[in-house]
Structure formats: C-alpha cells, structure tokens
Amino acid sequence: MILSWVRILLLLMPLATNAATWQIIPKESAINFTATQNGAPVSGQFKSFSGEINFDPTQLATSNVRIVVDINSVMAAYDQVVDTLKTADWFNVKLFPQAIFKSSNFTKTGDNTYQANGTLTIRDKTAPIMLTFVMEEYSKSHARAKGTATLQRTTFGVGQGEWAKTDEIKDEVKINFTLAATRN
Prior knowledge:
This protein has 184 residues and is mainly beta.
C-alpha cells in the first residue's frame, strides 16, 4: 500500500514542478511594431493575439510560451498602410493569417529582466529570434511583462516584388510588447 502511494506521488511530481500557466488579458496587452520608410518611423499594432504561457521566474527550465498573432488584425494610423500590409507582397493574410512565436529557452539577465530565445514564423518562414523583457509584476494571480525584439522583415519574405529592396523601407522592424496575464 505504501509503495502504491509512493508511485502516485512520483507520477504527480512533474506536474508540481511545471511553470505556472497564464491567460492573457487582451485589454491590458499589446503588440506594436515600428518600421522605417524614407527615414521616417511607421508604426502599427496587432489587435488580436492569443497564447499559451507557462512561465515561472523560479522555474525557467520548465517555462515555455507560444503566442499566435492574427495578422489580419493589423492596425496603423493610415488605412492605406493597413491595406498594403495585408497584400500578397507583404503579409499575404489570405495565405498566412497567423504569425507564431515559440520559446522554451529563458535566461535571467538581471533584476526582473529576462531573455527568451525562440522562433518566429511569418509567411511559413521560421527563423530564430530573441526577445528581451522586464517582468514588471509577478504575483500568484497576476503578471505583467514588457519587452522588445528586432527582426529583419526580408528574412520572412515580408515586402516582396518592388518592396524587396531595403533602401526605401528598411529591413529592420522593432517589436514592442506588453503582456498582462492572470494565472489559470
């Protein structure tokens, strides 16, 4: 009988060591981007995204995240920019409606600062990407992180045809994000 209880406890131990599971709070979260066209910043955001977040700063080895961005939810100051970004030369939202970021490699870099090495998939092209973020709040029920990443749009085939050159629209795109979440 004691041996049976020991087996049950051993089976449950991996569950107890997994990182905390979090649910994104959409109204408190944002994914923004800034590109450069003719030397001027062009900013926008993605209004709709979801995620599977299992993160605990004391258990980075078991932490992981998967964020899915609805590319069709892109917004910018000008409707013409939004319409252009949705076309086949840019995001091609009809064929590639989602971008996906995944990571299970987290490193603590300072007081409440972290680095996540993962992959980003846009237009069916996957490439490594590094995010840096600050854990602004982390309690038993609520967490809030702010971070950045930089990517090269041409790595993902974003901006094709006449837009493939990087003299008018630069290759580098900066991503800023805020993720607020509650514990499941």
